[in-house]
Fold this protein.
Amino acid sequence: TIVEAVRTATGVDPLVIGKPHQPILEMALAPLGLRKAEVVFIGDNPYTDISAGINGGLATVLILTGVMTKSEFPEGIQPDWVVADYDELSALEIFNSR
């Protein structure tokens, strides 16, 4: 696996983190100096992308260009916005209020 390759190459056990867990978001935002209130997490997978944003306390947008349609969306995971495509995404007020 990739984890084993990293372990072998470095002699160190890698720290495995990723969506939907919060540490990956903290690591991404910290060097940018961004507050959570300034960030919108956009993704096409409710289980990883939208859950990551929710778990990290970020606003979320589900874009229906990938994994599933709106009718297939699981209950219990609620993005702040759902858009059909990139045109709808770019038209959201949150991106045009500055």
Observations:
- The two ends are 45 Å apart (CA to CA).
